[in-house]
Amino acid sequence: MDQKRDAGGGAAAGGGALAGRVALVTGAGSDIGRAVCRELHGAGARVVATDLPVPALEALEAELPGLVADPCDLLDDGAPSRLAAHVPDVLASVAGLPVVARFSEHERGEWERLWQLNLRAPMALTQTLAGAMQERGWGRLVYVASDSARAGAGGEAVYAATKAGLLGFAKSVARELARDGVTANVVCPGPVDTTASRAILDARPRLREGLLRATPAGRLGRPEEVAAAIGYLASPAAGFVTGQVLSVNGGIAMA
Ligand SMILES: NC(=O)c1ccc[n+]([C@@H]2O[C@H](COP(=O)([O-])OP(=O)(O)OC[C@H]3O[C@@H](n4cnc5c(N)ncnc54)[C@H](O)[C@@H]3O)[C@@H](O)[C@H]2O)c1
């Protein structure tokens, strides 16, 4: 068997399934990002947590032994090479900008910000990180998009378009990288109970009611439920899973 190829699942000797691996988590200060840090840390990875310089990063360092926080603005051109210095084996791309606005009223100036963070930044990080993963013969790229990218969502046309771009991007790089043991997959959360979504839903009680009615599970998701999906896709066990899109959405859309 080609030594470069992924040999499959199973915990590494002396630790979790990701022992000896470095996992870079963007948007690590968000509710979903923090849950992802805990998940990957629990699997034995050395976690590098990045976000804007938010207090949550310091709290993560205090909570999870060995976690390294490296705050930076992903819109800075130097961010990818700075983060590449940690030599990650796993990229969990969680950072994103949620904006709700009717498309007819959505200012074009803001489209740029959305595309820059939601799509261009993960693309730039991937371009910088993937080569070293290929050389090592192992890598996991996991992007957080949104169910709105698959099913559409009123008030989220621009956000959904940028997140949908991640699907085509991930599937394409998945094809380019698969023979070198590097997988690329997307997790699409449905409505998840986070500080960011609460800010949106608290201001729109009818939207909240409608979402709960339309969700077969009858509740919002939890950040840990999204993190568990990311943890699987980042694991050695998922070595034959690539170019896939996994919704974690309580059944609100089924495709
Ligand atoms: N909460 C939900 O219901 C839901 C649903 C679908 C998708 N998502 C996606 O999940 C991810 C996390 O969402 P969340 O609700 O936990 O919190 P969130 O939307 O607040 O997370 C975004 C994170 O990105 C960071 N960020 C913003 N601009 C940045 C920049 N320039 N450089 C570096 N980091 C920057 C923020 O500080 C924040 O921690 C996002 O990508 C979001 O789009 C969330």
Would you tell me the overall average pLDDT?
94
Strand content: 5-15%
Task: Just name the CATH architecture.
Answer: 3-Layer(aba) Sandwich
Query: Nearest-angstrom radius of gyration?
Result: 18 Å
Can you write the helix and strand succession as a string?
A: EHEHEHEHEHHEHHHE
Structural class: alpha/beta
Q: What is the strand arrangement across the widest sheet?
A: 3-2-1-4-5-6-7
Main sheet makeup? 7 strands, parallel
Bound molecules: nicotinamide-adenine-dinucleotide
Q: What ranges have pLDDT less than 50 throughout 5 or more consecutive residues? A: 1-14
Report the strand count: 7
Terminus-to-terminus distance: 35 Å
With helices defined by DSSP (H or I, 4 residues minimum), what is the helix count?
9
CATH topology: Rossmann fold
- Outline: globular
CATH superfamily: NAD(P)-binding Rossmann-like Domain
Question: What percentage of residues falls in helices of 4 or more residues?
Answer: 40-55%
CATH uppermost class: Alpha Beta
Number of domains: 1
